[in-house]
Amino acid sequence: MEDTVAWHFDPKGVFSVKSAYHVIEEKEVQSKAKQREAELEQAVRLAKNSLPWRKNIQRRGMQIDTRCSVCWRLEDGGHCFVKCKFVKHCWLAMDLGGVRTKPLSALSAVQMVAMVLDLHGVENLTLLWAWWEARNKANCGEQKRSTAEVIHKAALLVQDANFLKKEGTCHPNRVSPRWKPPPTNKLKINCDGAYIDSMKTGGWGFVVRDHVGHGVLAGAGRLEGVADALSVECHACLAAPEKIAEKPL
Question: Where does the Reverse transcriptase zinc-binding domain start and stop, copy by copy (predicted)?
């Protein structure tokens, strides 16, 4: 088999162990960033009630057993992430039992996600992801993961989130990508959040633009008593769909 280049050279055209290390480090950061994006996307899909749990699949016309593949009770969003007796054990094992009971009074999926993220945003988001992954494994007929395995996965994801936060402070001059327009006759939502750790406050904002960059809808707001930056970002992601639902474009 012919040899291939494993790592790129540095900007000066020189290959070294140091340059290879930087390439590996950058790949690790990119991988963790993609995981965080996936966690945020899952929270948005949960708020939109569009995750493929069994009741949703049945509503789309497929004849399917609507029982939870873990505990064999009827599965919807509230059951999967809050009411299932096995996910209860995970919330309690992470000392988040009080957080789990908050969304039981939610009147909508959006409200449920907002309640879950109000406290311990990073821990809650990673637990939701770790549990959804475990649920999918059981749904495919694989062995059910134990509570210890689920919370271990969540703990690793929390470490990754903290690592990304540290990386962000270490590279203040990193250039952000330019805005790219959506396809013709499509709209694009951009959102962001800001967080002040010392005051536990934050702010969010979003803008909806068409393919030529014209603003169609925008919004902004302030948040009090939020747990971390990730919670603010999740609120920013949820704000745009909420406003669009109130005022269809």
Answer: 15-91
